[in-house]
Amino acid sequence: QVQLVESGGGLVQAGGSLRLSCAASGRISNINSMGWYRQSPGKQRELVAVKSSGGGTNHANSVKGRFTISRDNAKNTVYLQMNSLKPEDTAVYYCNLDQGISRYWGQGTQVTVSS
Fold first, then answer.
1. What is the pLDDT of residues 25-71, one digit of tens each?
2. Cα 114 from Cα 25, distance rounded (Å)
3. Which of 43, 54, 66, 82 is the most buried (most CB within 10 A)?
């Protein structure tokens, strides 16, 4: 099994910044990618950003230029730097680890952006 522990969520005013972290532990092997998704009430979970083990990244159009994903492969940790936050960024943010045949999710961390 793989465990994902997220941290860094909280309450911030519009225009502010937060940095999310997600550390993976357990039976980790052959990671394809690590990334972040988010879900707000009444909406489906959506991709925010993902970073492959080969180094490629993909950011949702809604966060491009504001959010940046990064990884520390040695620590099996993925980060999400979120700048210029908007109220519409309010959601529960989930870390994801893709090992091909298995995908794992963190417990989620709440990000609330006040206007």
1. 999 888 899 999 999 999 999 999 999 988 899 999 999 999 999 99
2. 33
3. 82
pLDDT at 40: 96
Strands (E), 41-87: 46-52, 57-59, 67-72, 77-82
Q: Residues 87, 41, 65, 107: what is their CA dihedral angle, to the nearest 10 degrees?
A: 120
Of 110, 83, 81, give the one whose Cα is nearest residue 94.
110
DSSP assignments along 94-114, one per residue? EEEEE-SS-EEE---EEEEEE
Q: Which residues of 79-95 are buried (b: 16+ CB within 10 A; e: fewer)?
A: bbebeebeeebbbbbbb
Name the H helices within 1-115. none
- Asked whether the beta carbons of 102 and 1 are under 8 A apart, the reply is no
What pLDDT is recorded for position 115? Answer: 94
- Order of strands across the sheet with 2-7? 2-7, 18-26, 77-82, 67-72
